[in-house]
Amino acid sequence: MVHVVVLGAGLGGVPMAFEAREKLGAAHRVTVVSNTETFQFTRSNPWVAVNWRKPEEIQVPLEPVLKRKGIDLVAVAAARVHPAENRVELVDGQSVAYDYLVIATGPELAFDEVPGLGPAGHTHSICTTTHATETAAAWEAFCRDPGPLVVGTVQGVSCFGPAYEFAMIADYELRRRKIRDRVPMTFVTSEPYIGHLGLGGVGDTKGLLESELRKRHIRWITNAKTTGIEADRLRVTEVDDEGKDKKSYEVPFKFAMMMPSFRGIKAVMGLEGLVNPRGFVTVDRKQRNAKYPNIFAIGVCIAIPPPEPTPVPTGVPKTGFMIESMTTATARNIRSLVDGKAPAMEASWNAICLADFGDNGVAFVALPQIPPRNVNWAGEGRWARLAKVAFEKYFLRKIRNGQSVPLYEQMALRIAGFNKLRPEAAEAAIKKTMP
Ligand SMILES: Cc1cc2nc3c(=O)[nH]c(=O)nc-3n(C[C@H](O)[C@H](O)[C@H](O)COP(=O)(O)OP(=O)(O)OC[C@H]3O[C@@H](n4cnc5c(N)ncnc54)[C@H](O)[C@@H]3O)c2cc1C
Questions:
Q1: What is the CATH number of the domain that holds 236?
Q2: Cα 56 to averaged position of ligand 1 atoms, centre (Å)
Q3: CA 266 to ligand 1: nearest atom
Q4: What is the residue range of 163's domain?
Q5: 100-103 and 95-97: which strand pairing?
Q6: Which portions of the chain are predicted below pLDDT 70?
Q7: What's the burial of 325, exposed, middle or buried (CB within 10 Å: 0-12/13-18/19+)?
């Protein structure tokens, strides 16, 4: 019997546990180590922040769901991974031993890297459901007494989508409340241009998102380094294409939501051979670490170099479908190892993203997410927002039912050409098993 431990119970971790259970069967043990007792659907946090969702609507208690699937839950945070000893030390002093470890902890939020950034400073956050809930209370107070609004991303950010989503949703909600005329809005971003998204853009996201900001009368500053944040203003330096300081701004605000940069969690930070200097786990396309081959990693916690240098540093987003592809490859690769075979499955890292802009929405398909791509498409319309709402309901239903990828979903994705595994690697693996 092997013991697979999944560290983290978010968008990657919970489906990972389901898929590992499915692929390994009842003869093997699967345990989830989580610092929370609930699954949180992070993608709906922007809706929580403007009171379109209650936090409990996007959370699922982990214990009953995992128990039903025969998966153990240890609801205690990890303090340190000890890769040479095959164990995870918990904050209560206990340890969980593993044969295979899948790290799926998402990021640590690096608010401390910009003075005044984050809930302990002067800006709000939507990165966790707890943050989004606190932001919702502040949003109501702001709407009672509105003023200038700033939304954006600081240097080093890799997750740009939620900032665009929050800006557009805020604009829509302010118009709905008929107070938009009292709210000058500014979008401040570390991207070299609007719609870059840490990906060199997808389709014409540049034109599309610029047009959305223009239509909504949201002015913007790109190539922006946020040097400090005070109670009522953001200090920003815009740089030129060479990264040299070009212009300084003081952007006043009464309400600000700025995305922080991410880094790896403390439990793995500094572990040589396992993580890079920012604490992101280094893995190959099989999601496997080179120094510790019984450790896999999926989701935001993995290291992926940016596709191109940008004047202000930006990172690569790790989006939902891309994370699902990492999960599927990892479950199959662990199964191969258990069977004494070499792991062969490579995640496609394909991306399909939906963003809600209140009165309409945007979608993009990037196959694969990192350029150059076979499919590079972005479009907008009310259908994209409806699809996002439908996806939320579908995904949460799957989590409540303990399902990862039902057969009908697998077939639909295959017909649409949205592969989770790289076809070349999958074909090579099949050929190897043929006589
Ligand atoms: C606000 C927001 C909106 C987003 N919207 C979209 C979207 O619409 N579409 C899209 O494709 N992508 C979106 N993303 C990007 C990405 O899909 C999400 O960030 C996704 O949740 C990442 O999944 P993950 O499993 O890597 O990390 P998470 O979902 O963050 O899960 C990590 C889990 O590990 C736990 N953990 C952390 N430290 C420890 C520890 N020491 N011990 C035990 N457990 C620990 C955390 O509590 C958490 O439960 C969004 C991201 C954000 C922040």
A1: 3.50.50.60
A2: 17
A3: 41
A4: 111-261
A5: unpaired
A6: 424-435
A7: buried
